[in-house]
Amino acid sequence: xxxxxxxxxxxxxxxxxxxxxxxxxxxxxxxxxxxxxxxxxxxxxxxxxxxxxxxxxxxxxxxxxxxxxxxxxxxxxxxxxxxxxxxxxxxxxxxxxx
Amino acid sequence: xxxxxxxxxxxxxxxxxxxxxxxxxxxxxxxxxxxxxxxxxxxxxxxxxxxxxxxxxxxxxxxxxxxxxxxxxxxxxxxxxxxxxxxxxxxxxxxxxxxxxxxxxxxxxxxxxxxxxxxxxxxxxxxxxxxxxxxxxxxxxxxxxxxxxxxxxxxxxxxxxxxxxxxxxxxxxxxxxxxxxxxxxxxxxxxxxxxxxxxxxxxxxxxxxxxxxxxxxxxxxxxxxxxxxxxxxxxxxxxxxxxxxxxxxxxxxxxxxxxxxxxxxxxxxxxxxxxxxxxxxxxxxxxxxxxxxxxxxxxxxxxxxxxxxxxxxxxxxxxxxxxxxxxxxxxxxxxxxxxxxxxxxxxxxxxxxxxxxxxxxxxxxxxxxxxxxxxxxxxxxxxxxxxxxxxxxxxxxxxxxxxxxxxxxxxxxxxxxxxxxxxxxxxxxxxxxxxxxxxxxxxxxxxxxxxxxxxxxxxxxxxxxxxxxxxxxxxxxxxxxxxxxxxxxxxxxxxxx
Lengths: 98, 497
Ligand SMILES: [Zn+2]
Description:
The structure holds 2 protein chains of 2 kinds. Chain A has helices spanning 6-15, 22-45, 74-78; strands at residues 63-64, 84-85, 88-92.
């Protein structure tokens, strides 16, 4: 069984800005371990001649012409924003970072 | 702070430079929004660059082409196959909560740039150049103006989010010693020249098209390991790159000499005071959990495409400097000063626009360098083009203005009064070549200075200077002094002997 420690779960939750209680960490750690184990089982069937796969389709070099296409108006862009000011997205105070 | 020279007696500096270049493609990296600078807030946006659900990015082929050309110009190997990666972090300047970048598979790697530092060639090794996208622009409201600390909230404009960026990272630059600040400056300057020659970016530091992060660490002299580094962000002029390196060397040296440890952190550069201040400490919060971008397929440039692009490269910078120096007939010192002032491209364009090499060099390195220095800006940021400088020199060559009047033409052009000819016209600066007006002024001067006139008649030609001065004064400097002298001697019947 793959191990994932309580500390690792707390760290990942912190990175993902998810506030977990101690009880939730206790509950999630074994659940995540099961998921990791399922993924690890792929390694059992993979052989050396199968490269790691990151994409579902075997394509490369899908490029777009460098031609401007119409986008959204500022009104449309801001329509879903919880708050705006001066045609900009208003976001809460940013703390603890620069 | 330890004295700079003293610091370098005790320590060896290691530099690292990360330069971000904003490409001048018509559209963004992954969507068809315009990549133009500025614009009304949030008018260059679409569902893709706003990270709205269901939107899908598609790579701008032109940006990949520019990335490969930059890589080749920096003598890099080009990846046969590489992927984009998500750099995950939470910050409102990226609405997707990740920046699309490249991680361990950069498009270009293992190159170098030979940099001219005071006439010596210094090889700066390039670790990698990778593709990514720019972030949006935040304005912090409340608290101290524009600063994040104490701000009540922030306003975000996403016009810039998604503009193609190439990040160019050097390997640690060691062995520069006391020249480290100059090497850093010369590298950024000469990298910018190369980017301009490639035509892939406007590369204006004042508009943020080209931004430098300066990494610095010190090790005790003779030691072969690297010390703890600081990373000074967004140093946005050549001069500041040099100053920031000097400052950090002195700061690190003082900390190490006191037996303390340098903190690994990002630092902010303050242009006004010339110091850096602590930003954010590097911690495990800097865990970006990179993973391959599933929405973009890999980039695999064919050998044929890469070779085609190699054929479009501008002349190698070192060879070009040697060729230009020979063509222009500059001395080593003149060439070194021109390169050191970041004026090589400007002088070259001025010469191409018709000015003689020495005249082009003179204006940029004296008159314009002085003004740039006074204003604390780069030469290239001055509001004058090489073509305008060439035109002003042409006005001098044509005898329409002299050097003194030419300086006033520079004033006018820099003040936004229009092209040189328009400035001459509007300010009434042209030299009076009408012999009638000159002749009258000479007659006046002779009448007003009978003693001097008598001396000249008597053969004391050297006394003519006083009369020339009087005429020039009356003509408000707008006369050809040589012609004035001729007229005086003619009228007083005194030949040059
Ligand atoms: Zn867009």
